[in-house]
């Protein structure tokens, strides 16, 4: 797998609905991809039925063709009113290409990259001194 940089043509940040996430999960199960939830029920137990944000992270290529994209998902968790979670999931190129992008403008792309970077590094509530 190779890293996708924000300057790569296949870098994107997308907003998807919960049903699309379920479809991606089912496709990942059908394809046998390792990066997914163990089941739809497991996904439902962790992800709140709200909008989910997706960022391309890596691409898997075989014989010069992209086989799958590994993406970060930023979502609201079922366990807390304002708690969020971040996880990865694999999806196929056709599904990936079908998702509507949010990051078309350079400034927006930079801000979204920073948000995902902070989220994947861990966010904590900080008391000001």
Task: Describe, in plain words, how this protein is organized in 3D.
The structure is a single chain. The radius of gyration is 15 Å and the shape is globular. The chain has four helices and five strands, in the order E-E-H-H-E-E-E-H-H. It is α+β, with helices and mostly antiparallel strands and 129 residues long.
What descriptive keywords fit this protein?
5 strands, 129 residues, 33% helix, 29% strand, alpha+beta
Quick summary:
The protein has 129 residues and is of the alpha+beta class.
What is the secondary structure topology, with strand pairs?
Layout: E1 2-3, E2 13-16, H1 18-31, H2 40-46, E3 52-62, E4 65-76, E5 84-91, H3 93-98, H4 106-121
Antiparallel strand pairs: 1-3, 2-3, 3-4, 4-5
